[in-house]
Amino acid sequence: MENFNFYNPVKILFGKGQIANIASEIPANAKILITYGGGSIKKNGVYEQVIAALAGKTFLEFGGIEANPHLETLLKAVELIRKEGIDFILAVGGGSVVDGTKFIAAAVPFEGDPWNILAQQVPVKAAIPFGAVLTLPATGSEMNTNAVVTKAATQEKLYFSSPLVFPKFSVLDPETTFSLPPRQVSNGIVDAYTHVMEQYLTYPVNAPLQDRMAESILLTLIEEGPKTLANLNDYQARANVMWCATMALNGLIGVGVPQDWATHMIGHELTALHGIDHAQTLAIVLPNMLTIQRDRKREKLLQYAERVWNLVDGDADLRIERAIAKTREFFEAVGVRTKLSDYGVGLDTIAPIIDRFEKRGFTALGEHRDVTPKVVEQVLTLCA
Amino acid sequence: MENFNFYNPVKILFGKGQIANIASEIPANAKILITYGGGSIKKNGVYEQVIAALAGKTFLEFGGIEANPHLETLLKAVELIRKEGIDFILAVGGGSVVDGTKFIAAAVPFEGDPWNILAQQVPVKAAIPFGAVLTLPATGSEMNTNAVVTKAATQEKLYFSSPLVFPKFSVLDPETTFSLPPRQVSNGIVDAYTHVMEQYLTYPVNAPLQDRMAESILLTLIEEGPKTLANLNDYQARANVMWCATMALNGLIGVGVPQDWATHMIGHELTALHGIDHAQTLAIVLPNMLTIQRDRKREKLLQYAERVWNLVDGDADLRIERAIAKTREFFEAVGVRTKLSDYGVGLDTIAPIIDRFEKRGFTALGEHRDVTPKVVEQVLTLCA
């Protein structure tokens, strides 16, 4: 395997009832801002649990953080925090609320235009501390340093990463996910699955433990994901998918191995331009990325075919084709469509996406840095 | 799965050459004590790498920490640290040096007799910070909060655990393990394997990801362990075993699942009374513990038989017997003998061990708390 550094100090409080334990994780006398999204937490009992757990503490609220959180919205929270002297944030919601809160946390002490944290990748030098109560297993944001933010004005979706925006703690209570709309449950499964694939489906570097751990998450998502859709109150299945989603992107399966992420970079553009859900973009792009890159990913595709889909007999090329087809079928089976046309998008989206990549200097993506604009065009053409 | 909390802030620096990077992980102006064992680090080049990396820093040395580190030795280091005003420790060695350093770190600010940290489990309220350069993959001590210390005067081997004794960082450079005696390499493989088994081979609680991650480590040790013995300079195999040993006991595979540890508790007594290497005691006890507890562990034994040893056909009881036999054969194949008689110990050791358990109030061990002194006697009888 390759050399690596690994560090992840996020404290995880996992299981039903754990929201009740957050007060002791927050500094005494902290002035807290609770950040949340569209208000579902006020309908499903999560908000009440959080308020009860914060009894005796001082807090304000900031709701309305949208999916693919908007810079414009987040900057209002930054203003509020500066004005009110807030010194701890509690994000209550899914990956968008957690991502948005990371940006807010870094933007508050940032000097200059906070958009440059994303657009110019200006390093974050400080951030106010925050914790999370996760209500949607998907992005892994609850246990990592990454955040993706969208500037609505220019339809740009960009990310940043900093060890200063590790959550201090994250509560993962599977019961908070019972009331999610099925579309979000489906999206979460595909998002976690693709996070694993971006770190696993590259080329072998003799890292058998990382490979097997990645396969462990894929197999568990394939096994447990459909159960969460078949019975919305299946606690154990929800718990297993929730833990899979966190483990998929907390850094551990990616240590010492090459990583891809080209599917994500293309997917972000589809979301920015057309408003397609993040996971839907991954379901569209990933199978076709694997198809176009099948020669460069050949060894890992054969391993994936065997260990994840039990495809061991017959022609190797056929096994690869079937493994890719199985991947697409799994996405469809958990309710996520896999073609651009399913979302009313035509191939005329290709030119502006490539134009955007070139303008940002993303000239070559993927684990070999060989996913050039030409390759992106080939991939997106297959997505029709 | 069961509810759990998980927190592990140890920074891992993995790979060849990483010792050169430790200076930036140690506070500037720290007065450092380097702790080490019998002096092998002065023969294999590790000491020189450490000294070079600490250029310009102030440090003292404390060598001579033995396998199963002795309270009596460690207290000398405590005295030195207090006298010299040391404020950071750098442990360079295997699990015994790291365990001993954890005890030293906690004992320095401890009020009263530090032995009570172990004997009376008095909670640790402070510890001086330390880092580790690991030279022997086995115990997992480099990424956890546990330490085992032996009081030579009374032949007592006891443990303590505290989040205050997480290493600040651990360097895992597989090249430092090339010069290990084969016996220590063998022991490390068995130790890591048994750590996984103590957390995996209990009863099912619907935690498929934890199960698969545990199986991932077992399969990788079975695959990579023998390679490290066949070719002492196989960097990749060493790297894979080293990462397996760390992952086996950094808390992750044990979240939300029952744990056993009865084999360890019995093994510690065999070490304390007879000086048998820790891993050797595990190789002696584990197969027989599985045999005696086979009814209570039946479901997981069948899963283990299928997923780790590919035993899927025939009578279920026979599969269980074969899986246990395979476990024993693996230990023997990597060079660790599995009978008490191999170490010149007879069954007359049973009475004193049970006497010690009863005196310490260890009346029932294991995941069901049903490994009574009577069961311990049954297990040890099979170890003849």
CATH superfamily of the largest domain in chain A: Dehydroquinate synthase-like - alpha domain
> What letter string, H or E per element, gives the SSE order of chain A?
EEEHEHEHHEEEEHHHHHHHHH
Q: Name the shape of chain A in a single word.
A: globular
| Helical content of chain A (DSSP H or I, runs of 4+) | 40-55%
Number of helices of chain A: 13
Report the β-strand fraction of chain A as a percent range.
5-15%
Molecular structure report:
Two copies of one chain form a homodimer. Chain A has 13 helices and nine strands. Chain A is an alpha/beta fold. Chain A folds into two domains: 11-176, Rossmann fold, CATH 3.40.50; 182-382, Dehydroquinate synthase-like - alpha domain (Dehydroquinate synthase-like, alpha domain, Up-down Bundle). In chain A, α8 (262-274) packs across α9. The two termini of chain A are 37 Å apart. The interface between A and B is large, with 40 and 40 residues.
Quick overview of this protein structure:
Chains A, B: Keywords: Oxidoreductase. Two copies of one chain form a homodimer. Chain A is α/β, with parallel strands linked by helices.
Which key features would you list for this structure?
six-stranded parallel β-sheet; two-stranded antiparallel sheet; 13 helices; 11% strand; alpha/beta; 2 domains; Rossmann fold; globular; 9 strands; Dehydroquinate synthase-like, alpha domain; 384 residues; homodimer
